[in-house]
Specification:
Blueprint: H1 2-13, E1 28-37, E2 43-52, E3 62-74, E4 78-96, E5 99-117, E6 124-145, E7 148-157, E8 160-170
Antiparallel strand pairs: 1-2, 1-8, 2-3, 3-4, 4-5, 5-6, 6-7, 7-8
Length: 171
């Protein structure tokens, strides 16, 4: 994960070397995806709005903010439902035409409900928790046609690794 974040940061910092389109102010995206994590198959939805062009005076480096929602269910140590909701900020750069790479963070909460095993592994206890999250995110989006593309994200939260892929709409 650390190597991927370093690679994405290097791509973002190479802004002056390559000519490309840019993710910038006014760009809007909606991403819908499914993935894998340590326990199950999560589903996710994201919305993002570009708010800054030329972030830190780097041509082609944009900043977007938006919302995030995700869900996964697993049966490790009981039956658990996990629902994520939050806001995220992502720095974008397009190193080549139609490829948008980004890094950033999602800040929000994970709502966990279910039956969890206690000290006695044969007894399941009802439990609900709300956990604050600060989740690093790295990924890329490739535009297949104007307004439509595919994407892949990597993230980590509370020791749970997420790899997600799906479709992206830009308008």
């Amino acid at each position: 994960m650390k190597k991927l974040l370093i690679l994405c940061a290097a791509l973002l910092l190479s802004a002056g070397v390559l000519q490309a389109q840019k993710f910038g102010k006014g760009t809007q995206t909606i991403k819908l995806g499914v993935g894998i994590n340590n326990f199950s198959v999560p589903v996710m939805a994201e919305y993002e709005l570009g708010i800054v062009d030329n972030l830190a005076t780097v041509s082609g480096l944009g900043l977007g903010v938006g919302g995030y929602a995700g869900f996964y269910h697993h049966k490790l140590h009981g039956r658990n439902n996990n629902f994520y909701v939050g806001t995220q900020g992502l720095a974008h750069y397009m190193p080549v035409s139609n490829l948008d790479v980004y890094v950033g963070a999602m800040i929000g909460a994970r709502f966990r409900t279910g039956k969890h095993s206690g000290d006695d592994k044969n007894v399941l206890e009802e439990a609900s928790r709300v956990l604050p999250t600060i989740t690093p995110v790295a990924g890329g989006r490739y535009q297949l046609t104007p307004g439509f593309g595919v994407y892949a994200n990597l993230a980590i939260d509370h020791g749970v690794y997420f790899a997600c892929a799906g479709i992206a709409f830009e308008f």
